[in-house]
Design brief:
The protein is mainly α. It is elongated and about 60 Å long. 63% of the residues lie in helices and 0% in strands. It starts with a helix and ends with a helix.
Length: 273
């Protein structure tokens, strides 16, 4: 079956289950449990996993776990949460974690932009591991800023909106070019590792606050970083959302180009007369 049709059917089936008290002849699907053990990539268990993942957009994880028969629990997705990289200090992230803590204190004290940027001074202005980047941007500083702001605002969607609006200048200070913006999306995806609904919302927020452009999302989606997610339906949701946004973004410029061409044609006609 066409992948788009599978995605649409999965969305419809999840919506159907949520509206009919999750009543279904689950016994007919028990074969999926056996197939999942022998071949996790088999279409049947994989489809059911995607349906359960879509159900998390419509209900809470605890509710889903309670209404689904116990034998299907192995097919449930990982509980949505956040992956704050600097929650625990390790030898690899010791310097970044120290700067992240200093940035949090600066935010709590409502200090200005220069003071907040000052807390990031110990970090390098290039790549974190010393490798060469196509375009120079402060990768380590960017990761600390994005991770910290998402941690501050992850209580709710409204908290995230307030945080992005309040610290927009700080984000733009460490995100000078398109490669940095693509890296921002990677960091955000890593933070919302098990919460794909919020990732889709974050893409919308980044666009609304003009932190990124639609072309950045295209570069991120088709980057090697996202290759392991190509066969997941939530990846299609991101790609389809980006396709719509990109079309809307390009349409005005195309219309402007057409109007300019029309003006040129009218001028030529007048000259011929």
């Amino acid at each position: 079956m066409n992948t788009v049709l599978v995605d649409r059917f999965g969305s419809w089936f999840a919506y159907f289950l949520s509206n009919f008290q999750y009543h279904w002849t689950w016994s007919e699907w028990e074969e999926c449990i056996k197939l999942n053990k022998t071949d996790p990539n088999h279409p049947r268990p994989k489809f059911l996993k995607e349906v359960f993942l879509k159900l998390l957009w419509l209900t809470f994880y605890e509710k889903l776990r309670d209404v689904i028969p116990d034998e299907f629990e192995t097919l449930l997705p990982v509980k949505p949460g956040y992956n704050h990289k600097f929650a625990e200090v390790t030898p690899d992230n010791q310097l970044q974690a120290k700067c992240a803590k200093a940035l949090v204190e600066s935010i709590k004290n409502k200090e200005g932009l220069e003071m907040m940027l000052g807390s990031l001074d110990p970090l390098p202005d290039g790549a974190m591991d010393g490798r060469e980047l196509d375009t120079v941007y402060p990768e380590a500083k960017l990761e600390v800023v994005i991770q910290t702001i998402l941690r501050v605002g992850c209580k709710s969607i409204s908290h995230i909106s307030v945080a992005l609006n309040r610290f927009r200048d700080l984000i733009m200070s460490v995100m000078p070019n398109q490669d940095a913006k693509v890296c921002c999306l990677k960091i955000t995806f890593s933070f919302f590792k098990n919460n794909h609904q919020l990732m889709c919302i974050m893409i919308e927020k980044f666009l609304n606050f003009q932190l990124i452009e639609p072309t950045c999302i295209v570069s991120w989606i088709f980057s090697p970083y996202m290759l392991p997610h190509f066969d997941r339906l939530y990846f299609m949701a991101d790609a389809r959302h980006d396709d719509i946004v990109l079309y809307k973004a390009l349409r005005p410029s195309e219309g402007g180009a057409r109007s300019e061409q029309d003006k040129v044609e009218r001028t030529r006609r007048k000259r011929r007369r």
